[in-house]
Write a structure and sequence with these properties.
Elements lengths: L2 H13 L3 E6 L17 E7 L8 H11 L1 H4 L5 E7 L6
Parallel strand pairs: 2-3
Antiparallel strand pairs: 1-2
Length: 90
């Protein structure tokens, strides 16, 4: 099963984002620690959601990491996160 669609569903269900962009950057990490030759090991994720209002950047990242805990414990080695409220997404 592909990892990206699973992550997308979990983030959509858990955060109800206004904007969600998931980019597989695994090809940029060939030869680095945690790289999986099958891909889907390194991701860049942009999430814009009202759920982040009043939360610190660390708390926002914790929210995303909690939703994706199973994937982070498995095939996903690294996430680069941009977590914004709608007001911050200018």
């Amino acid at each position: 099963m592909r990892v990206a669609p699973v992550m997308q569903k979990k983030l959509e269900d858990g955060l109800k984002p206004i904007r969600l962009v998931i980019t597989d950057d695994s090809h940029r990490h060939a030869g680095h620690a945690g790289h999986n030759h099958e891909g889907e090991s390194h991701f860049n994720i942009v999430v814009v959601a009202d759920a982040f209002a009043g939360k610190s950047r660390v708390d926002r990242h914790r929210m995303v990491n909690a939703l994706l805990a199973d994937e982070l414990a498995g095939r996903v080695h690294a996430l680069a996160l941009t977590t914004l409220t709608p007001a911050e997404d200018k």
